[in-house]
Amino acid sequence: MADGNPPPDPSEPAPGGPEPVGQASAVRPFLLTAGRVADGGDGPSLPIETQVVATAEGLDALDRLSFEQHDIVAVCRLPQSLAEIAARLRLHLNVVRVLAEDLRAAGQLTVHVPDAGVVHDSTVLRRVIDGLRAIPDARGVRSDSD
């Protein structure tokens, strides 16, 4: 990088929480998913708060996965929500949904969809909003401190 520091490794958790790592992908989202969309086919798409975690098979297959799939499995060594993965890897949320479904079908991710009653709890929504506001932008400025 220009400041002499190496670029961050997207396979490593960012210090201090789910900060975005790396640059946004220049590849169009429909190319990453082969034109598939998150809610096409088998029912509704996974909610953004769905927690995913890498399986042992997924970690063993890291070197055989595409770049984006590799990065998703690598950051899921610890449970992550789809929203956290999309933000950390700077991928479109629907791309993460489609690729997470593919990885789940291949046995490389375990998916934990939240209980519908909890999803509609306003206190959970308030905590999510507060957490999103606490994430610093590219300049390192928190959105709740503007």
Describe this structure in words.
This protein is mainly alpha-helical. The protein contains seven helices and three strands; from the N terminus they run αβααβααβαα. The chain has helices spanning 29-32, 56-60, 67-75, 82-89, 93-105, 116-119, 122-134, and strands at residues 51-54, 80-81, 109-112. The longest helix is centred in the last third of the chain and has 13 residues, at 93-105.
Report the mean per-residue pLDDT as an integer. Answer: 74
Net shape: globular
What strand order characterises the main sheet?
2-1-3
| Unreliable runs | 13-21
Largest sheet: 3 strands, antiparallel
Secondary-structure element order, as H and E? HEHHEHHEHH
Number of helical stretches of at least 4 residues: 7
Rg is: 16 Å
Q: What is the rounded distance between the termini?
A: 28 Å
Report the strand count: 3
Structural class: mainly alpha
Quickly describe the structure.
With 146 residues, this protein is mainly alpha-helical. It has seven helices and three strands.
Secondary-structure map with pairings?
Layout: H1 29-32, E1 51-54, H2 56-60, H3 67-75, E2 80-81, H4 82-89, H5 93-105, E3 109-112, H6 116-119, H7 122-134
Antiparallel strand pairs: 1-2, 1-3
Overview features:
single chain; 146 residues; 7 helices; 7% strand
